[in-house]
Amino acid sequence: MKKTTIFIISREERKVLASLKSRMRKMPWLDYGIQKLVIETGINRTKLQQSFYFLFGVPIHVYLLEQRMTFAKKLLRQTTLPVKAVATQSGFKSEKYFFRFFKQKTSSTPIAYRKRSKNPKP
Question: DSSP character for 90?
Answer without folding.
Answer: T
